[in-house]
Write a structure and sequence with these properties.
Elements: E1 10-15, H1 19-31, H2 33-38, E2 41-47, E3 51-53, H3 58-63, E4 72-74, E5 84-87, E6 89-94, E7 99-104, E8 107-112, E9 115-118, E10 122-124, H4 132-135, H5 144-160, H6 164-170, E11 172-176, H7 180-198, H8 201-206, E12 213-217, H9 229-242, E13 245-247, E14 252-256, E15 259-262, E16 267-269, E17 272-275, E18 279-281, E19 298-299, E20 311-313, E21 318-319, H10 333-351, E22 365-369, E23 375-379, E24 382-386, H11 387-400, H12 404-415
Parallel strand pairs: 1-2, 1-9, 2-5, 9-20, 11-12, 11-17, 12-13, 19-21
Antiparallel strand pairs: 3-4, 6-7, 7-8, 10-18, 14-15, 15-16, 22-23, 23-24
Helix pairs in contact: 1-10, 5-6, 5-7
Bound molecules: flavin-adenine dinucleotide.
The site of flavin-adenine dinucleotide has 33 residues, from helix 1, strand 2, strand 6 and helix 10.
């Protein structure tokens, strides 16, 4: 849809305030700033959460290296005033009437659109394992990371006055999934529990050797098996040196109040069972009849448009073809940001009647941190480990944080964290979050 001749404003609605939606809204606002200010274009961001969550820093929030508020920034601070914010959950879209229904705390709103950007992402897969929702932990959805952060302090506190068997359970954690996120989280939780014990001299004196204990359950025979072998070997060596127990070729079968049951029937008594088994794509009612891939992602063309007129998609919710023809893009933050920026540019082109440009980003890299200076990742497909990988990740994360001010505050926090690599934990803000 080009410039509207009927003097009715062009209505652009973005669903989702994650990486893809936020960057799309910012790009549209930048490209169409004059038209937004004159009222020719109306831009609305609909988000279930009123803040943007920077999931990349999840492990560092657990270890206390990044303050929680640096990984969770209010959306109001990230968008120009011309963008209307609507905080609530989009419950349905009507592709014929071109409307989205949004459930807000003030009631149901129906929002009309000419262009709708679907960037509702993915959510913790909490129903794949029996008992996970009731007794387990995950970290992506709203409030879960904050709750886990508090929980890890509480188990250490409770362990201080417990008998040895209960202390053993409280200071044992199980992480399911030995991909990049799970391996990173296992290392972070072990470090955090060790810090919690060290901060309590009575507990430190009482704990049995081998505690705190972290068990990493992985269904393959290699960690981070989707990365080059050198990266997997490096991660396996560091995990082993750290004292993390890996149960290769095992799956988490169930979670109870007592701990984790594995697929061989064995029970690991544990007060903390974390799932890093992946995410479920958010399904938006009203889009079911559109093309989806086998993971449930909305299929788009090279311009990030779906088959429905005026409907665009990007990020984890979308299967966007790679420029080199090697299949759809990976679901991660870097790709979601690139989708968002490109979507924003193409929506602005569509509104102003210009030709759309195909998505051309070819990827950059990815990495996990298994501790300061211990990165495990790849850059343009080449394995990168140790300090180079860790520094690459650190620089890229700060570069891609949505607020320069918050990125500077985060970087300053890291620089105050001396002497390296020994730890000086600062977890101010964790309790308040
Ligand atoms: C623990 C963890 C660590 C990670 N670490 C990394 C990393 O180091 N590097 C990396 O590249 N990737 C990482 N990822 C993956 C990355 O977080 C995702 O790929 C990324 O979040 C996808 O961005 P998105 O914008 O598509 O969706 P999301 O970030 O999921 O954002 C979707 C947004 O839409 C909102 N929403 C959902 N449903 C609705 C609705 N119906 N109505 C309105 N709003 C809705 C959500 O509240 C959210 O704000 C990590 C993920 C996790 C869980």
């Amino acid at each position: 849809m080009g410039t509207d001749q009927s003097h009715r404003p062009v209505r652009v609605v973005v669903l989702g305030g994650g990486y893809s939606g936020l960057w799309a809204a910012r790009r549209i606002a930048r490209r169409l700033g004059g038209r937004l200010r004159s009222g020719q274009v109306l831009l609305t961001l609909v988000s279930a959460m009123d803040h943007h969550a920077f999931h990349g820093w999840t492990a560092e929030v657990i270890t206390g290296d990044v303050r929680p508020e640096h990984a969770r920034v209010p959306i109001d601070r990230l968008l120009p005033a011309e963008v209307t914010r609507l905080y609530g959950e989009a419950t349905a879209v009507d592709l014929g009437d071109r409307t989205a229904t949004v459930q807000t705390t003030a009631g149901t709103r129906v929002v009309r659109y000419d262009h709708l950007v679907v960037a509702v992402g993915s959510r913790d897969a909490r129903d794949r394992i029996d008992g996970l929702r009731a007794h387990g932990w995950s970290v992506k959805d709203d409030g879960h990371l904050q709750a886990l952060n508090v929980h890890l302090g509480e188990v250490a506190q409770a362990a201080t006055g417990s008998d040895p068997a209960e202390r053993d359970r409280l200071l044992t954690a199980v992480v399911a999934g030995g991909g990049l996120a799970g391996t990173e989280m296992a290392a972070a939780i072990l470090q955090r529990l060790r810090d919690e014990v060290a901060a309590r001299p009575a507990l430190a004196a009482a704990v049995a050797p081998g505690l705190p204990r972290v068990v990493l359950v992985h269904s393959h025979d290699r960690l981070v098996s989707d990365m080059p072998p050198r990266v997997g070997d490096y991660a396996a060596r560091l995990v082993c040196e750290a004292g993390i127990e890996v149960r290769y070729d095992h799956r988490l079968a169930a979670v109870t109040a007592d701990g984790a049951t594995l697929d061989d029937g064995g029970l690991v008594r544990s007060a903390t069972v974390l799932s890093a088994l992946g995410q479920d794509v958010v399904r938006l009612p009203g889009t079911e009849h559109l093309d989806h891939d086998e993971r449930g992602r909305l299929v788009t063309d090279a311009f990030l448009q779906t088959a429905a007129p005026g409907l665009w998609a990007g990020g984890d919710v979308a299967a966007v073809p790679r420029a080199d023809g090697s299949g759809p893009c990976r679901s991660d933050a870097l790709w979601a940001i690139s989708h968002g920026k490109h979507l924003g540019d193409n929506v602005a082109r569509a509104v102003t009647g210009r030709d759309l440009v195909p998505f051309g980003f070819r990827g950059l890299g990815r990495a996990a941190s298994l501790g300061v200076g211990r990165g495990a990742g790849e850059l343009y497909g080449y394995p990168l480990v140790g300090w180079p990988s860790w520094l690459m990740r650190w620089v890229l994360f700060h570069w891609f944080m949505p607020s320069r001010r918050v990125a500077l505050a985060s970087a300053a926090g890291w620089l105050r964290r001396t002497p390296w690599p020994s730890r000086r934990v600062s977890r101010q803000g964790a309790a308040a979050s």
